[in-house]
Every structure is written in C-alpha cells, then in structure tokens.
Amino acid sequence: MENLNWDDVRLLLLVARTRSLSAAAVQLGVSPSTVGRRIALLERALGVTLFMRHASGYRLTEDGASLLQDARRVEDAMVQLQGRAADAGSTPRGHVRLATNEALANLLILPRWAALAPRYPDLVLELVTGAAIQDLYRRDADLALRLVRPEAGGLTVRKLGVQAYAVYAAKGLAPQTRKPGKAGLGKLPWIGWDASIQHLVQARWQREQFPEARIALTANSLFTQLHAAEQGLGLAVLPCYIADTHPQLTRCLSPGQCVSQDIWLVIQQGLRDAPRVRVIADMVAAVVSDNRKALEGLPP
After folding, report:
1. pLDDT by residue (tens digit) across 23-64?
2. Same fold for the domain at 6-86 and the one at 96-160+262-291?
3. Predicted structure pTM score
4. What is d(CA 51, CA 190) in angstroms, rounded to the nearest whole number?
5. What's the CATH code, domain 96-160+262-291?
6. Banded model confidence at residue 135, pLDDT cuts 50, 70, 90
7. Which of 268, 297, 293, 300 shows the shortest CA–CA distance to 97?
8. DSSP 174
9. Where are the alpha helices (DSSP H) in 165-274?
C-alpha cells in the first residue's frame, strides 16, 4: 500500500486496543462513523480484513493481528522520536504521564514534586490515579508506580520496595480486640470493599481469612474505608504508611500477620533514558526509598 501514514497506524492500534469504534473516536476527536469509514478505507487499501465485529466488540482477524505487531514497532519508533524531540537541549521539558494509585499520589508523590518542580519549570507532571492502573503497553502513561508486576513486554520493571498492610480499628472498638486471635476478630464488624474491586489483594485476604465476618459497610475508596474505621464502624485492612499516622486507630493484627505487596516502577522501554522521564523516575524511586520504614509498617 502506498501513502500509509502514522494516522492509519494509530487508527489500527486504537481500535485493536479499545475494541470499540466509539472509544477510538473519543481518543481521536472524531465521530464513530468517521472511524468506521477510515477502517473500511484502510482495509480496502491493504486488501485485507482487519477486524470482525462481535457482540463483545471489534476483534482482530488473523491478518489484522499480524499487522498489529508491525504497527506496534512503528508506534515504538514514533514514541522514541517524539521523546527525543521533547528532550532536545540540556533542560528536561515537556509532559510526563505517571500512573499510580490515589494514596501514593497524594501522600507521597505530590509533596515531593512540590519541592522538586521549581527546578524544572518546563516539565509538566501528569498524574493519572485510580484503582485500575493505566496500561503502559497501550501508551496510557509513560511510567507507573504499581503494586502489581505487569506481565506485558516492552516495559522496564524495577522493584522499589514493599507496601505492608495491617488490620486496624478505632480505639473505641479496639478494647474488644485485645489479643482475641483471628476467631475473636471474626466476630466483630468489618469494613469491606465494593463489589467492583473485590480483586484487590487486601480484599481477597480479608475474605479468605474472615469469610464469616459481618460487613458493616463497603466502599470503593481507601480513604472512605480509613475514615469509616476511625468512626468505629468496623475493622479494616489498611496500608500501614497511611493508618499509622492516624492516632484514632490502633493495630489489631500486625503487618507480619497480614498481607503485603511489592512496589514496582514500570517505564516504557523506549522512554527509560529520556531525561524528562528520568527526572520523574528518580523522584519516585527516592520517595519510596525515603519512606521505606513507613511503607513496611516498621517503627521510625
């Protein structure tokens, strides 16, 4: 095919990743019908069928899946080219998109960036937060601070530390929990997770260890759980670096009796040496290192 351009490659990648004309259209800033027409034109020009429409969305055909690998290589080259252009000169500049969860962003990363930002006036940090961390392989972020090691290729992965959890209760509820053992804790009310995020490590641990416990309240926010525990509504599995700073709470089970997660720094391979990304990566690594004891639930 002659005159195949980056817009065509990007179109193929977006529809393949979102499996939806509407979702791809939002990212491209056009209508779904425009995306559909462009896909049809691309298929006609290539002489192959790229997608089959299913109830679950658009799926790649065998020919489409084969071309997708080439499209990803083109994308990698474009990302590196754009990164080098943004990094031209001695001062890091441009945008860096960092994905992490809300707690790490607000409590650890933002305070450090507030101190560091004046040194990099031309550098813009874009923080993307949420329980569902952005997929770096889909180019949703340049780097991420994650609590789950990614399985996809094309990423540089480095373990930075450990985030420990413990079981906490308000001090008004805590006298009932003095050395009662797990059986005793299971008789008390608990704060659980919303059904949409039952896959989280701490939610699974709580269900497995206290399957018969009465759930007094569920929430889809860590901070809501924290404040509910402070109000004495029930026991909660919380990150030590957060809950230990709240004097109204006390531990009922120690980190060694609870669950923990490794903390991973993940960078798109084509961006790992970009100065602007390196600034943010080094900052994130330093933040985790400086807060190691708090993150692991150890005494200061």
Report:
1. 888 888 889 898 888 888 888 888 889 888 887 788 888 888
2. no
3. 0.72
4. 47
5. 3.40.190.10
6. low
7. 268
8. G
9. 181-185, 201-209, 222-230, 240-243
